[in-house]
Amino acid sequence: MGVKDKDKADGSASGSALPSKEAALFRSMVKMYEMKQYKKALKAADQILRKVPAHGETLAMKGLVWSSLGPENKSEAYDMVRAGLRADLRSHVCWHVYGLLYRADRDYKEASKAYLQALRIDKDNMQILRDLALLQVQCRDFEGFESTRRKLLTVKPNQNANWIAFALAHQLNENHADAVQVLNTYEGTLKDTSSQESMFPYEASELAMYKHMLLFESKEYEKALQHLEQNEDKVVDKLGWTEARAQSLAMLERYDEAEAAYRTLLHRNPENKTYIARLADIMVTRNRIHASQAGNEAVTKSESELYVELCDALSVTYPEALSFRRLALEHTDGDDFLRRADVLVRRFLYKGVPSLFSMFKSIYRDQPHKAQLLGGLFESYAAHLNSNSTASLPPFKGSAYVDANGSANSSDGAKEDNVSEAKLQDLTLWVDYFLVQHYVALGQHERALQLVNDALLRTPSSIELLLVKGRVLKVVGDVNAAVSALNAARKLDLADRYLNHKCAKYAMRANRVDLAEQWIGLFTREGDIPPVQAMYEMQCLWFELESGAAFLRRGLTARALKRFIAVDRHFADFIEDQFDFHNYCVRKMTLRSYVQVLRLEDHIKDHHGYMAAMRALVRLFLRLADQPLEEQLKSKMSLMEAELEKMTAADRKKALAKRKKAEAKEKTTEKDKEDVSKAASGTGKKGDEDSVAGGKKKPGSAVRQPGWMETDPDGVELLRSVGDFVEEAHKYANELDRWAPRELETQVLVFDVALRRKKVLVAARAYKRAQTICRSSEALELVCMAIHLLRVSEAASWKPVLSALPAEVSDVFQNVVEEIRGQTGVSSALEYAQKAATRQTKASSGEGISVDDQLMLARALLKMCRTDDDWARDARPMAVGLLLEWPKDGASGPCLRTCEELYLNEQELALGADDKQRYVQLCLERFPRANVFGGGDKEIVM
Amino acid sequence: MGEDGEKKGERQAATADLDRVTDYVEDRELDADRFASVQKSMDAMFGSSAAAAASRKSKGSKAQEGKELHALKVAPEHIKLVMEHLELDEPAAELALKRHGGDVRATLHSLLSM
């Protein structure tokens, strides 16, 4: 290691213009900072400053160290660094430190500006170049990254990592050939010295596999395979090597060898579904080739036959493996399917494996007729167990079971287990458990409920039965009773985290966030961190989403906002988290995983949790924007105060509500009362939190900073900081449009937001995009959007907006409107609405099309009435008719979710009290157990 | 942040340990012998890959299109109009206009179906 290079590497530690003793101290201070010995570093900085008070670089470094000592020092730190910068503008150290400070604040733009300034002063500074490269890859400025890495390699070609990172830069720029060339050159330099051993075996192995990845991704399969085989002894990741080889062989269409490779892999792990799928693919492809060569179609086996053949053969080789038997079920039908299912489920039933139903979920979803077969099979088990009192399942009788439905009772040949009472009870339990889930999946909720209640009489302490009972009740809308069931299950095993969390989740569905938080708190870290903050720190998405939705249902907008914003922050953190890996992975040579992480991060916001939060935020802000101005002001300025007031005066209100309840049988007061009582328990809790936060510990000991969830826990400040609700909705709608443009829901929301912002072309674009998503032009979302666009073009209230548009814009918009008229053959929005309504009524009277669409149409039409009086006059009666007249019979009625969604957003429909009551009445008739419409249990049984 | 002060219980100790983990590492470098050979092969690589990159650039059809489009001039108020009414950023609006020879109607219309 040359002395000259050493100086350069620690370029940041220049300590220029200092006496030699202080210069040395400066260098060691920099080192202390890097070793996170901040307090020591601070002392050293003060020591230097005592001698040379105006030393810019030391001032800047002190600022950096100071900011690392605590977030509360931030603004002071900026002042210090800026002071340092003023004292020594020509110092790259000061600029570098300035950039580091911004980087710590995630302000990458300012940070890279500062870095570039520093590089202007010292263009070959390794440390700054390296930091700049990290920023560039974090911001996905791959071109900049490549040129920075090139510079680094030119400055210091004798550092191994610089070569690797340069190759990586080429790969990220989709330049695989150059990446391979860089690696080749690098390897070339290794060959002519003995330093080849200087690399650790693991690193050499990863490097070899990384090179294979490059070759494979650039579709150089021949070279990729060759490279693999040449480096077999170097690679320590044997599994990865074998997988890579099998994959390469398959791509090279060397099917025999590929098959052998996948069989080797399967021998290692017979349950790996990817291996089975790949192997089956090979079989299918080879069969196709074979058939086309023979020119005889009759010889060809169907794909399913091939799958089944393969699965059967493998089940013989690996009799204990389940995946083959499970896969075969997807490709068989009728008696064959039943026979196979029978063999498989027996194992599970005798052993009492609760997850049996999960195995069939995809079959219930994709192949419903087989669900019927399975139901028949289990019915026959149940009947046999009922009548025979032997603890064994009946022998298989094929599809006879399906029709016989229980009459199959013969004990001949049945394997006689120990005929013990307990065993019989066990078997009955698991058969019933499956059947309950079966009926739920088929939508036969009452039957499921009856079955589970009967089963619970036999085995009252079965946690599984209680859970599934809760599920049925939740599905039919009796969430309170569902929580009671879950709570009973929870109490049977208080140490079970799953039960506890599941129970909390159900409580939130029942709008009891207070209960949920109480339960969650049983399992979060002990100490002074409140459960909500603990869940926030664990970045628990479901908790934030469920509690946010519950607050929203209760109309506690600000609190809901806080929870949804939390999700947004989690994802910002997920993205931020990759920063550490840019440096670490290259150093550790885990390049394959690193590239995978980068790709994952590029798409992390596709995650359904993020989407759900964004959708909720758009709706939340649109709802706020919809309120009349005075209410809006109230919600902005004092919504939360009002809520808090409600809480402190909770007892009084509670009493008031109780009296009301006694007087009136109104369903609606029920809801209010619940809210208040919930709010009351919320207050007690809040008081606790305050006292914890208030009890400041003595200085010097570890003072915990209050977390994000603890400061402004009710979201008051958060909501207050929002300037314009529509603009805020726009911000989140843009996120949706960016990450999930192919979701219909996204385009519907973008459309809504655009019209509120008077951006007619953006709305038209959303409509057009929705058109490409929907398979049918009669999809209800499309129809509603088209009606709305037609209305925009004709409504008086839109005239001033449209006439203010530039001619080009209004022409293009009119084109779209004409297009709609042409496609649908209607001349006005009202006509289209009537047409859609008629079709809907026809459909609902017999075609078996759900009434959900009808309600959605009603909702859309009513929403348009709010800002358009002419429209309200013409369309309102029709819309109300659609809302309140639907068939009574169960099969074609709307689903609970639609009815509930509409009811919870009823303020946007501006219904009269009578209509509202009629709607609730209708819904209650259809969903007699639904809490939201006043049915089912009033209270949770604790 | 990392306090060296009091530590109660294992968890705190573990947290403290975690806080002490740093990114700091000594760089591993090649010895002087190899330096020369590395320098040589790097020079060779840059020479050839620079040439290859240059040839790629001139050949690429995208680059060609870019060049032609680049020469085209679009009125700034048109760019502003597209940006405002379809909420695009400036480069995207400018490129779309250029692709349609500066025709605002055609640009807007085509952008609706994108």
UniProtKB/TrEMBL annotation, chain A:
GO terms for cellular component: cytoplasm. Signal peptide: none annotated. Residues 663-677 have a biased composition (Basic and acidic residues). Residues 655-710 are annotated as: Disordered. Pfam families: NatA_aux_su. Transmembrane segments: none annotated. TPR repeats lie at residues 92-125. InterPro entries: NatA_aux_su, TPR-like_helical_dom_sf, TPR_rpt. GO terms for molecular function: transferase activity. PANTHER family: N(ALPHA)-ACETYLTRANSFERASE 15_16, ISOFORM A (PTHR22767:SF2), N-TERMINAL ACETYLTRANSFERASE-RELATED (PTHR22767). This is N-terminal acetyltransferase A complex auxiliary subunit NAA15.
UniProtKB/TrEMBL annotation, chain B:
GO terms for biological process: protein stabilization. Residues 1-22, 46-68 are annotated as: Disordered. Residues 73-112 form the Nascent polypeptide-associated complex subunit alpha-like UBA domain. This is Huntingtin-interacting protein K. Gene3D superfamilies: DNA helicase RuvA subunit, C-terminal domain. It comes from Porphyridium purpureum (Red alga). The lineage of its organism: Eukaryota, Rhodophyta, Bangiophyceae, Porphyridiales, Porphyridiaceae. It comes from the Eukaryota.
